[in-house]
Amino acid sequence: MLHIAPELCYIDRFEALENLDYITADLESPLAKVKMDIHDIPFDENTFDVIFCNHVLEHVDDDLKALSEMKRVLKPGGWAILQVPFFSPLPEVTKEDPSITDPKEREKVFGQDDHVRLYGLDYANRLRSSGLEIIEDEYVNELDPQNIDRYALPKGEIIYKAVKSSS
Questions:
Q1: What is the pLDDT of residues 41-57, one digit of tens each?
Q2: Predicted TM-score (pTM) of this structure
Q3: What H or E segment, with its residue span, contains residue 86?
Q4: Is 106 within the bounds of a domain?
């Protein structure tokens, strides 16, 4: 499993799993075992069964290139979880403008000062453009509302699972 931009809350849990070869990677994070640029992942084709990539794509210069790299290093039948933040109201089409470099303007346009795009309703189709099969899982909506509140789960959040074809 490749965990891109690893979150501290997951690292010990994943490392404790004896049946999991777990690699953390990031451009800058001291939590990462491997320093890498997601635009040029330093692993061979068909290396990973799973990629876990939360809240990264909105920060990178070329998300489509990053998706291409993730597809390349996934094994056939492998899958990735690719979550990004969504800000209401959700635009129809993802907004990006590389000429916006001022952090205050980025925050105003993209929702955060270090974001380079604001994803819209086209997110799943944007992911599909990489050639990965996209499954939109609305699991949270199937849970008891008390558990959603108890665990502070984001109501209505879709989990985006990208699967590399086995053929």
A1: 999 999 999 999 999 99
A2: 0.93
A3: none
A4: no
The answer to whether position 113 is within a domain reads no
**Smallest Cα–Cα separation from 161: which of 30, 47, 52?**
52
- Which residue pairs from 133-140 have beta carbons closer than 8 angstroms and sit at least 24 positions apart in sequence? 133/162, 133/163, 133/164, 133/165, 134/160, 134/161, 134/162, 134/163, 135/160, 135/161, 135/162, 135/163, 136/160, 137/161
Q: What is the distance between the alpha carbons of residues 43 and 49, in angstroms, rounded to a whole number?
A: 13
Q: Would you call 149 exposed, middle or buried from its count of C-beta atoms within 10 A (0-12, 13-18, 19+)?
A: exposed
In this predicted structure, what is the pLDDT of residue 154? 86
Nearest CA to 57 out of 164, 155, 138, 160 is that of 160
Is there a domain that residue 150 lies in?
yes
Cis peptide before 76, with omega less than 30 degrees from 0?
Answer: no
The range of the structural domain enclosing residue 157 comes to 2-90+118-163
pLDDT 10s digits, 3-18: 999 999 999 999 999 9
Amino acid letter, 154 = P
What is the domain-level CATH number for residue 146?
3.40.50.150
